[in-house]
TrEMBL record:
Belongs to the DapA family. This is 4-hydroxy-tetrahydrodipicolinate synthase. The gene is dapA. Keywords: Amino-acid biosynthesis, Cytoplasm, Diaminopimelate biosynthesis, Lyase, Lysine biosynthesis, Schiff base. Coiled coil: none annotated.
Length: 303
């Protein structure tokens, strides 16, 4: 009696190792398109097969609609077809989100990242209708972005399961910290699940996730990619050790009281890479925080 081989996993819709890219600014605070191109080229060259632009780490609340489109066009020119470009277009206004989605499609994005509508705390039926309207309006595949700690609104697992029926809703960026909920959706849908919290990169991948959308990848793209590569190669102990080695930097960048945009730019600026200042109301990291970040970075890349 022969046993059928297990089905091959579906190809990841946007890649596996995605960076939630910072948006470089000049010293005066203007959009630095040359810097964005240089940073994007470096990230792709060091293992990122997808870039998320104008997400949380990209300081999307403080960039204009025109800047968002300019950024997509510049990064597309820099990376060509070597990496997917996922455009963050989510806002608390459905109409504005649709406008940004259409503009991103026109500018050359491959996909959309749409965060749950924030501040107004709509109920789940309204959340679902919001995502369906955006997905209906644009011709690009869409990833739901579940980050209730920032939005104040959860995309409940049952809502995600219903939304998975839409042909253009194909993925989730999961920052819910609900590992059981993520596994519930994975078991009942074919959605691609991306870890949005770097401490979950390996754990979510191990239970059927697709990969990650990482802030920490701005500074250590190859080290995070190595975690997935080792797991793919069947070497779980090595992948676990690599994830553990990255943990001190992950903690300082993502859980030490400063937003990821601030910590990522602090390290990139110290390394002489494109970043520049953050836009207010964010403020730059202090010297003590920068010193700690650099020490953790050096330990990871040289240890």
């Amino acid at each position: 009696m022969t046993t059928a081989a297990p089905a091959s996993p579906a190809a990841p819709p946007f890649g596996r190792a995605l960076c939630a890219m910072i948006t470089p600014f000049t010293g005066s605070g203007a959009l630095d398109l040359d810097g964005a191109q240089r940073l994007a080229d470096r990230l792709v060259g060091e293992g990122c097969d997808g870039l998320v632009l104008s997400g949380t780490t990209g300081e999307s609340p403080t960039t204009s609609d025109a800047e968002k489109s300019e950024l997509i066009r510049a990064v597309r020119e820099a990376v060509g077809e070597r990496a997917s470009i996922v455009a963050g277009v989510g806002t608390f206004d459905t109409r504005h989100t649709v406008e940004l989605a259409l503009a991103a499609e026109k500018a050359g994005a491959d996909a959309l990242l749409v965060v749950a509508p924030y501040y107004s705390k709509p109920p789940q039926d309204a959340v679902e209708a919001h995502f369906r309207e955006v997905a209906d309006a644009a011709g690009l595949p869409l990833a739901l972005y579940d980050i209730p700690g920032r939005t104040g609104t959860r995309i409940e697992p049952e809502t995600v399961i219903r939304l998975a029926e839409h042909p253009r809703i194909v993925a989730v960026k999961d920052c819910s910290y609900d590992f059981l909920g993520a596994q519930k959706v994975l078991s009942r849908t074919e959605l691609a699940y991306y870890a949005g919290c770097d401490e979950h990169n390996l754990a979510l991948y191990a239970v059927g996730g697709t990969g990650y959308i990482s802030t920490v990848a701005n500074v250590v793209p190859s080290q995070l990619r190595a975690v997935l590569d080792a797991f793919e190669a069947g070497d779980t102990p090595v992948s676990a050790r690599l994830q553990q080695r990255a943990t001190p930097l992950i903690e300082l960048m993502m859980a030490a009281g400063l937003p990821g945009a601030v910590t990522a730019k602090a390290v990139l600026n110290e390394l002489g890479l494109p970043a520049g200042p953050v836009r207010t109301p964010l403020r730059p990291a202090g010297r003590e925080a920068v010193a700690g970040l650099l020490a953790a970075y050096e330990e990871l890349v040289t240890g």
